[in-house]
C-alpha cells in the first residue's frame, strides 16, 4: 500500500493538495511526477496533543 504520513517531508509538502493533483518531487535518482490518487483523514480517539 502506498501511504504517506504527514510526519514526513513529502507529507508536509503535499498538505492541501486534492485527489487528481500532480506534484513534482526530487528523489536521489532524479525528479518524478506523482499524482494524488486518494486523500484520507485518519480519525483518532483524541485530536489533542499533550505537551
From TrEMBL:
It holds the Pfam family GreA_GreB. SUPFAM superfamilies: FKBP-like. GO terms for molecular function: DNA binding; translation elongation factor activity. Keywords: Elongation factor, Protein biosynthesis. Gene3D superfamilies: Transcription elongation factor, GreA/GreB, C-terminal domain. This is Transcription elongation factor GreAB. One of its GO terms (biological process) is regulation of DNA-templated transcription elongation. It comes from the Bacteria. Signal peptide: none annotated. Residues 2-40 form the Transcription elongation factor GreA/GreB C-terminal domain. InterPro entries: GreA/GreB_C_sf, Tscrpt_elong_fac_GreA/B_C.
Amino acid at each position: 500500500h502506498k501511504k504517506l504520513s504527514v510526519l514526513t517531508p513529502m507529507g508536509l509538502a503535499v498538505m492541501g493538495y486534492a485527489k487528481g493533483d500532480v506534484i513534482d518531487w526530487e528523489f536521489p535518482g532524479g525528479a518524478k511526477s506523482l499524482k494524488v490518487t486518494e486523500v484520507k483523514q485518519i480519525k483518532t480517539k483524541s485530536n489533542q496533543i499533550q505537551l
